[in-house]
Design brief:
The chain is α+β, with helices and mostly antiparallel strands. Helix content is 34%, strand content 24%. It has 2 domains: 82 residues, Phosphorylase Kinase, domain 1 (2-Layer Sandwich); 99 residues.
Length: 190
């Protein structure tokens, strides 16, 4: 059995982590401030963290949320790494950019994701579009949960900033106002 401890990832201030060593030559499929993700099989990936506290935080969130359809399955948790389900699909930012519009159904799906996160007792009720993967069956999974229990956020600022960046914030908010006027007022209150 391979140990993922020999993959070395180091944190960098205000930058994505740096991969120092990958002795297995696993393809790097993503990286961010907390860790790097490598594809280890057609249905599994390993996220290797620069700091053990980030691995611990995310493993706690994932372990306690395995019953949720929006959370990737976990297979193994180790020191500074988590082996989890590889979600083959398209990040929501790319999906929406290619479509050029946001449907009412997609707005409702995004609201359902946020509602599910609230049911899971996440403190950070926000998503980045790049962290939502849409599968070929149109299921949605949310990635990157390091701060789900540690940062308080009741208004999804990242979501709204991402939608604004691709020109879809106004149609999203118009649909939100029709679907849930109270939530619209809460989110748009300044």
């Amino acid at each position: 059995m391979k140990t993922y401890k020999s993959i070395v990832v180091v944190p960098r201030k205000y930058q994505s982590v740096k991969v120092i060593r990958n002795p297995y030559s696993y393809p790097l499929i993503g990286k961010g401030f907390q860790g790097a993700v490598f594809l280890i099989s057609s249905n599994k990936c390993v996220k290797v963290y620069g700091r053990s506290i980030h691995a611990s935080r995310e493993s706690d969130v994932l372990s306690n949320s395995q019953h949720s359809p929006i959370i990737p399955k976990i297979y193994e948790i180790g020191y500074k790494y988590i082996v989890m389900e590889y979600i083959n699909g398209t990040p929501l930012d790319k999906y929406l950019s290619l479509k050029g519009f946001i449907s009412k159904e997609m707005t409702e799906n995004i609201l359902m994701l946020l509602s599910e996160m609230e049911q899971l007792n996440f403190k950070r009720l926000d998503i980045k579009l790049r962290d939502v993967i849409i599968t070929k069956h149109m299921n949605m999974k949310v990635l990157d949960h390091v701060n789900a229990h540690f940062k308080q956020r009741n208004v999804p600022k990242d979501l709204m900033n991402d939608l604004k960046a691709i020109g879809l914030l106004k149609p999203f908010l118009n649909q939100l106002n029709r679907i849930n006027p109270n939530l619209y007022r809460k989110w748009c209150k300044k």
